[in-house]
Each structure stands twice: as structure tokens, then as C-alpha cells.
Amino acid sequence: MVRAILEGRKTQTRRVVKIPLHGEEDASWVKSIHQDGGGNWIAWSTDAPATAEFTKKAYPNGEGFKCPYGQVGDRLWVRETFVLNRDADKKGQPPCFYRADWNAVGYENSSPSKPSIFMPRNFSRITLEITNVRVGRLQEISQADAIAEGLDQGLCAHVFKQSAGKVERSNAYWLEHSETSEEESGDNGNYCRACALKQQKRKGKKWLLMGDGGSAMESDGPAFCGCGTPLLLSLTEYGIERELRIEDDPNGKEPEHFPVSGMDARIVEMIADGIGDLRDEHLGRLAQIGFATGWNSLNAKRGYSWESNPWVWAITFKRLG
């Protein structure tokens, strides 16, 4: 995320709205949140007799609640994972190095890294100014907003790889007889490497292992070995749209958002890695799925899963330094 801010790709962030309930156990009754003339956000339910009466019950002081992360015009400083520079007392040496720069800077003389929560204010190199604050449901995020969250193709691939876990993917292989040129590729059309080697051992030395993933094969969707391993085969435009669940809706309704995991995550990772006929018009949808997947991995265990669709602060900002 720090790299995305530095590169100008991330201009939005979302945080769960924690409504002050004054003794209520949860906010499951909240049906809508509106902003009043004083800049306060007021939560209310369609089950309440009247908005004013409900507001008085939920907020005895007659006030709503403000975004705890700041208001429009506020300036925020960004914390980063960092390491202290042991040579900082030398002329021209910075006080610390930043995790986001580790690929470009050496750390031979550095201390162990420290989490971002421990970064002092004077070490921060990024200042942001809030330009807009709004409230909405988590699942209402648009494709443009998902991209503004910093979810480019490379970051999506990383998120999907993490979500896939131990599910492997393989190049596509088949067997060919050295004398007759007869081909054998299993019921699904191709083998993963592990299954191809097993089949080669069964059939004998005259059967040669063919394919290394370099021979892209057209497919309307990802091919699978009989063992279930996804194979690195080309996806047609139609196949990619099917995997991303892009559907033409006469009413202009966007397709359902969803997080992916396991095999589904591995397939979408292949798409994010550029396998197949990925088009620019697919990137927004890819970012939506990437955001939903990343959100779940960070927040589901805290009780704010994607499926629960909580109210969130959508905060837009610009970088000042």
C-alpha cells in the first residue's frame, strides 16, 4: 500500500464505521446513514417511527458521529515499516530505511525492522490531505474505486496468490511416442508435470514428456489436470470474462462482488499474471475481486467479513509529500 501511494496509484482507503451505540450491543439495526447540515453522520433504521426520534434514542446529546480518521482538509502522516540506520550520525545518512524501498536499498548496517505502529512522526516521509469522506456499504465499491484503492494487476496477483494457499499450478504436458508420434494427454486434454511423469513411468521409456508451458493453447477457461491442478494455458477473452463473472446486464447492474480462495484464487492469479487474453476493460473487475479478497484476509477474523457487508468510511486523499 505504501508503494501504491508513492506511485500515485492509491488515493482511497476504507475503514469500518463503528457507530457509537450508547449501550446497544451491535449496529445490525442500522439501515441507512445520512449526513446532517452540521457535517455529522446520523444512523437510522427504517424500523424506527421517525428519523428524529430514532436519532434522539441513539444519540442522547443530539449529535451524530464524525469520521474518527479525519475530516476534509485534515492532513495525515503515514507510518511505514522501517529499520533504524546505525550510520545515521554520519553526514548525509538518513535516520531510517523504509520497508517499501527494500528492493533498492541495502541494509547491511541496519537494525531489525520495526512495525509501522512504532514509527515516530519525524521519520514519516508521506503526508496526505483528505479531500472527501463518505459512508457506504462495503460491497458498493465500484471498479474505479477498487483501482483507486491501489489494486493494480501486480498487487491483485499477489493477493490471489496468498489466498490460494497451497494450491499449485503447473505447465501443460502430454506424452508422445518416440516411434509412432502417437500422443496421449489424459481425459482432460493435458497433464500437470507430476501426473505426466507418473503416466510416463507407467507407459515406458518410449513415451516422451512433451510441453513446457511455452506452447500456449487456446481455451475458453483454465484447463485442469485430472488431479485438479490448474494448467497454464491461454484463456480466451470469453474465458476470462467467465472466470471474472462479467455478465452483460440490460439494467446496467454490475456483477456480484466476491472474494476468492483456494482453486478459484489460483485461477484468477493466472489471469492477473497475464495468462490469456486480458484486456484493459477487465482490470476494473479484477481490482474489485482483488479488493474483496484482500479485505477478507485482513478483516474477516475481526468480525467484518466481506459477506457481512459492513458500513465503511470511504476516504479519498491526495499526497502532499
* Rg, nearest Å: 26 Å
Low-pLDDT residue spans: none
The computed structural class is: alpha+beta
Report mean pLDDT, rounded to a whole number: 86
Oligomer: single chain
Spatial order of strands in the largest sheet:
1-11-7-4
Continuous helix count: 8
Proportion in helices = 10-25%
> How many distinct beta strands?
11
The helix-strand sequence is HEEEHEEEEHHEEHEHHHE
Percentage of residues in DSSP E strands = 15-25%
Shape: globular
Structure description:
- The chain has 321 residues and is α+β, with helices and mostly antiparallel strands.
- 24% of the residues lie in helices and 16% in strands.
- Among the domains are: 79-123, no CATH class; 174-210, no CATH class.
- The chain is built from 8 helices and 11 strands.
- Helix 4 packs antiparallel against helix 7 (262-272) and helix 4 packs across helix 8 (283-299).
- It is globular, with a radius of gyration of 26 Å.
- The model has no long low-confidence stretch (mean pLDDT 86).
Q: Can you summarize this structure?
A:
By secondary structure, this protein is α+β, with helices and mostly antiparallel strands. The protein has helices at 2-6, 51-58, 143-148, 153-164, 193-203, 237-243, 262-272, 283-299, and strands spanning 12-16, 32-35, 41-44, 75-77, 82-84, 96-98, 127-137, 174-177, 183-184, 207-210, 311-319. The protein has 8 helices and 11 strands.
